[in-house]
Amino acid sequence: MRALWLIRANLEQHPGGDTTQVLSTALALRAREVEVILSSDPEPNLDGFDIVHLFHLDRAWENGRWWQQIRAKRMPSVLSPIYWPSDEFDRQGRTGVQGLMSRLASGVPYQNIRIAQRSALPLVADGDFRTVNWRMFSFERSVRYALNTADVILPNSRAEQAQLERRFGVQSRCLIVPNAVDPRVYPAADGGGRRPGEILSVGRIEPRKNQLALIRAVRDTPFTLVLVGQPGRFSQRYARLCRRAAGPNVQFLDWRSSSDLRELYHSAELHASVSWYETPGLASLEAAACGCRIVVTPGGCTREYFGNHAEYCSPANIGSIRQALFRAMTRPHNGDLARTVEAQFNWNTTAQRTLEAYDLALKGDSSRPAEAPYDANACGALNGPARSCREHSNLHEAVSSHLDRSPAGGGRLRS
What we know:
The protein is of the alpha/beta class. The chain has two domains: 2-181 and 346-403, Rossmann fold (3-Layer(aba) Sandwich); 198-343, Rossmann fold, CATH 3.40.50. 41% of the residues lie in helices and 11% in strands.
């Protein structure tokens, strides 16, 4: 099987969690003898491919032209939406000019403005306005066009699927493909050797990740906070605010390799991600695989992945974050979550589910694959029978070698 993956042009220049997802899933599929070709060509040649795979439901300024080509060629296609509504973040968390715009024109109007802005930039740069169409100025129209074109949609949780159904009327063609980690890169460790009171938080420094609230939450506590990551492309000012707010118990680290991150996960008492939303956050999954206690917010699909094994807090409430940190510090290191992550949230499971979606798309079966009922508290229940991540022993070396070349994110390529 030959699969063409159409990816954002800056996937590696400005890495995020989708970078890890794309590269790791591609490697796992290649190990299953699927030829995966990555391209960001705005006018790709679709001949000779069996299926086309796109990512990001809300990057219509980039994907819109591809969807037109796919529809014109009647190519089998799938979409990994990597989507979660940003309403709460738009109302309370965005900063700067975008924050002002999101509060003046909240919800769909702000999304329309954002998509029009991003669509206009390449048009102005290229001076080619022949590709202008009405969908460029309507977030919901562009989203529905993509969802109606894809043969199968691949949300990474039932919570994400429910959001697509509720917001855009998606009623079929969904198959859950979970996000994952490689437990060979991030193996479990027991509670021994961890630094008492150390909190780790890995990820780009940016308003959505909400590190400023975490910094304020650890003020006047016995905890030490270690932040690992570089500022996002448009978050330099936010990063400066974080450094100014940091007390003597806060440490900032820039880029770290996968092996360095593994040591940091193994030495920290807990990992905290107080983002406005995550799906579910690769750093939290990696930390869980390494045996860290976990603090997250309920925004996104975190409950579906971590269930009752994590402590939850409100991203808008400093007191809630502080209380969750104290609660998490009293939890025992029992290893249950690490075992669940290793068994069910690994790249071979992700590759297998992706192959199942390809088969459905190639057969033209538009009915929804059967999925168990959504249970927000059922940690690890996404994937049915557990599949071991140890089928392909060289997978983690290939991924680590590729990802560790990038000096962005926090060592790994992440959101």
